[in-house]
C-alpha cells in the first residue's frame, strides 16, 4: 500500500499551528472543523473539511516534533478510513486501499473507526484504532498503516459481544504509561478487557460492573455496556469508568471495580476524562438515566473529582442553564496545557464548549455545527 497526499477536501483554510498554540479537532455528523488559539481566549475556527462525510473520530498527535491531526471518516462510497494532516488541514495523506483494512481471511469489512489513540507513553510511531465490528488495530509507523490485533479478534468471547445503541464498538484504548505490555480496552457491548503480555492474550476484567439490562445475571464475566475508561495520572493501577448506568473506579489494574457515583445527579453518561498530571482528578458529564438522554434536568454541567471519585463538585459557570442535549462518548478531550489544563466537549446540538482553567469556568468555542461526534485538543509545546 502506498500513501498519497491530496489537497484539503474543502475550501476551508488551514489553521495556523506554531509552538505555544492550542489545537482542537472537531468531528461532526457532516465534516471536520479545526480550531487554534495562541492564548485559549481568541480562536480561529476553520471548516468544514470533508463536508459531506461523517467524522466519528479525531486525534491530535504532538509527538516527534510535528502536529499530526488524525481523522476517522465514513465515506459512504469508498468506505471508512483514517487520514491525517501535518499542516493544519492544508493537505491530508491517505493510504491507497485504506489505512485500516481487515485481512481477507477474517471475512470482515471495516464499518466505522470509533477512536484513534496516539500512544504517548514513549512508544514512537505507535497509534491505536478502535473499530466496528469490534476490533482493535495498531500502527507502528505513525498511522500510515494499521494491523489487526489478531489475538483480540480471535478471543473466544468475540462471537458473544453485542452492539450498544450506536453499534458494536471498540471505543476506548488505554495503553499503560509505565508498562509496555499492559493495555486496557473497552467496548459496547463486551466490557473491559486487558492484556498484560503485550497482546498475546486478553482477559475480561469486569468484576463489580453492573449490566442492568441483563436481569438474569447483572454481574456477568463480560457483556457490560462500558461507555468509556480513563487512567489516573499518578497510579497506573487506578482507572475510572463510565458505564451504561454507573460510574466506577478500580485501584487494582481492573481486577475489581467499585461504584463512585455518590454526589452525581445521574449515573448514566458517555465519557470520563482524567487529568494527565494530577492524580485523583477526573471529570464526567452526567446524562439523565431515562429514555430522554438529556443533561439532568436540562442543565448542562461538568462534574469534577480531586479525590479519586470519593466526592464530586459541579462545574457550571458559563454553561447554559437550559440545554436538552447530550455529549457523546468521544466528544470530550483535554489539551495537556502545562500551566492550566483545558477541557473541551461538544454536544449533539452542534456546540463546543471549553475551559482554560480546569473547569472553573467555560466559554463557547463553536456553535451551530452539525451533531458533534468527536473532540480532541492538544497544546503544542513551546
UniProtKB/TrEMBL annotation:
InterPro entries according to UniProt: WD40/YVTN_repeat-like_dom_sf, Xyloglucanase_GH74
Protein name: Glycosyl hydrolase
Keyword set, alphabetical order: Hydrolase
GO biological process, one term: xyloglucan metabolic process
Domain of life (superkingdom): Bacteria
UniProt GO MF annotations: hydrolase activity
